[in-house]
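We were asked to recover a plausible sequence for a given structure. The inputs and outputs are reproduced exactly as logged, with field labels preserved.

PROBLEM: sequence recovery
POSITIONS: 99
GIVEN STRUCTURE:
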């Protein structure tokens, strides 16, 4: 299922609502084309793309979601990953995606 490996980087940003905050790595630029190519015929609802993501020594399965404002994708980064890797809002994150 996860056949293509893509190296990427982007800023860790916070998106907040009245009830909660979520953190995402924003992916834009050349990597977007790589993701679209790797995911051809395998996108889910809303154009989501299932991935196995690795940041530092932490790997987990999640989905990328389209982000219209940057013509790219966002990768949700759960609290356990942020804690394990010492990540904070504004960090520039290097990661590996298996699509």
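RECOVERED SEQUENCE:
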């Amino acid at each position: 299922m996860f056949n293509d490996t893509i190296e990427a980087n982007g800023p860790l940003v916070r998106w907040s609502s009245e009830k909660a905050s979520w953190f995402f790595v924003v992916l834009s630029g050349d990597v977007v084309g790589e993701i679209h190519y790797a995911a051809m015929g395998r996108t889910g609802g809303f154009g989501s793309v299932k991935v196995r993501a690795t940041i530092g020594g932490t790997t987990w399965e999640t989905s990328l979601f389209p982000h219209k404002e940057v013509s790219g994708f966002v990768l949700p980064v759960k609290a356990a990953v942020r804690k394990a890797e010492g990540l904070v809002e504004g960090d520039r994150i290097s990661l590996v995606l298996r699509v």
